[in-house]
Amino acid sequence: MLLIRPPAPIEPASPPAGITLRPPTPEDTEALGRTYFASYPPGIACATETEAIEDIRLTYAGEYGVLDLSTSRLAIHYNTIVAAALVVERAPWPDTPNCPFLIELFTLPTHRHQGIAQSLLTACLTPTTALALRVQDNNTPALTLYTRLNFHPA
Predict the structure, then answer these.
(1) pLDDT for 42
(2) I need a surface site. Which of 21, 89, 109, 149 has the fewest CB within 10 A?
(3) What is the pLDDT of residues 91-113, one digit of tens each?
């Protein structure tokens, strides 16, 4: 399901205690790939950790659009990446709107239900630019978050 949030003011959600947010850098590739792999059940995002790291390398290389390092955010807990929101300037797929696109939002299972995803997502939103994303229509927790933040079907 394709969702979009029109430009609108947003109240940033503070990260939980002990979590800091920062932009990603290419030096984060391996650690980010490991977190990406560990955030999903086996075989859902990637079949192996090595494949997940390669997918993150491809993300930095622009395979899914130009990664917007100023908008994307990582959540850090004790120097470990525990979650990420990766935004490209424009998705390369023909059915997506001409605006920034959230290509990934993931959180380690040990850090879910703490508000980290909401903190990451509100850090990616701006009052003057739309943001689009794709979500499975059976992903109730994600749909609840997106609806709360004023995303609607594109």
Answers:
(1) 82
(2) 109
(3) 999 999 999 999 999 999 999 99
Q: What does DSSP say about strands 2-5 and 19-22: parallel, antiparallel, or unpaired?
A: unpaired
Beta strands across the sheet bearing 101-107 = 19-22, 73-77, 80-88, 101-107, 131-134, 2-5, 152-153
User: What is the percent of the chain where pLDDT is above 90?
Assistant: 95
Among 120, 20, 4, 15, which residue's Cα sits nearest to residue 79?
Answer: 20
- The Cβ-side half-sphere exposure at 6, using a 13 Å CA radius, reads 3
Q: Is 65 helix (H, G, I), strand (E, B) or coil?
A: strand
Q: Please state, in angstroms and rounded to a whole number, the distance separating the CA atoms of residues 44 and 37.
A: 9
Residue 121 neighbours by CB under 8 Å, 6+ apart: 13, 85, 102, 105, 145, 149
pLDDT, tens digit, for every residue of 9-53? 999 999 999 999 999 999 999 999 999 999 999 888 899 999 999
Kindly calculate the radius of gyration of the chain based on its CA atoms and give it in whole angstroms: 14
SS3 label, residue 120: helix
